[in-house]
Every structure is written in C-alpha cells, then in structure tokens.
Amino acid sequence: MKKIITTIFTILIIFPLCWIYLTNVKVLRVISNSMEPEIKKGSLVIMSKQNNYKVGDIISYKTDQNTVPVTHRIEKIFKIKGNHFFITKGDSNQEEDPYPISEKELIGKVIFVIPKISSMVDNKVLATIIFFTALTFLSFILGKLIKLLN
Question: What distance lies between CA 141 and its chain's CA centroid?
C-alpha cells in the first residue's frame, strides 16, 4: 500500500513540478483582473517560450517599466529590423497597453491556467510547498540511486 501511495504521489505531484523545473516552463501568479473572464485574479498561469507567437495568444512579459510580470493577449504583431514586437491588451481593459513588447521581454505563452489556486496561499507558502516537494522528490531519487549502486 505504501508503494502505491508513493507512486501516485510521485506521478501526480512530483513529476509535474520537476518537469517545470527541468524545462523552460514558468509559473506565475495573476495579481489583477485585467484578463477576466478568461483568467481570474489569483490564478496560476503556466507558460513556455515559443518560437512563434500569433495574434490572440496570451503571453506574459516583463519590461523595465513594470516591476512585476504582466499577462495579456496579443492584439497586433509587427517587425522592425528583423525583431518582432507585440501590442498587447488585457481582455477586460478598454485600451491596448501603452508600449510595444519586444521578443526579449517575453517570458512565454500561457499554455495552462490553474484557476484561483494562488488566492488560497500566498507566494511564500507556495514557494515553500514547491521547495519541500522538490526536496522530497530529490531525496526519493537519491535513495533509489544509492540502492541501485549498492
């Protein structure tokens, strides 16, 4: 029974967290209602860098003007001297964002949303959960490796 619980725990919790850490996937907390009703305040967005973006994609970016990442939808794309720029807008905002976003400022495209989960815990608690989950996973793997080597 203990093996079954450990296996289920590893598959459902640990594997996705390790996949996030080992790939270019990022997780951000949505702190405003600018993307409602599509993405509610307090949700977690899971994103990944892409080779190509298109109008309608929801992206997250960080600029020198913003101290926190912004998650908005691409409204327009244009190219200047081989570099792509994006005009973005929050779904519930009346106007487009005031400046274009360069490819260098992109964090990634939203590929999955976990609704309202981060409103249940603050960032420190979430970081602590992720840290100890990863630590548990690493201890588990290390224990298996030691058994294999002996």
Answer: 25
What residues make up the domain containing 106?
Answer: 2-149
Q: Which residues of 85-94 are buried (b: 16+ CB within 10 A; e: fewer)?
A: ebbbbbeeee
Name which of 12, 105, 24, 92 is nearest 59 in CA terms.
105
Residues 6+ apart with CB under 8 A from 25: 19, 46, 47, 48, 108, 111
- pLDDT tens column, 94-113: 999 989 999 999 999 998 88
Q: What is the mean pLDDT of residues 15-26?
A: 65
User: What is the CATH classification number for the domain harbouring 102?
Assistant: 2.10.109.10
pLDDT-derived band of residue 80, with 50, 70 and 90 as boundaries? very high
What pLDDT, on the 0 to 100 scale, is given for residue 134? 66
Report d(CA 87, CA 101) in Å as an integer: 6
Kindly tell me if the per-residue pLDDT of 75 is higher than 80: yes
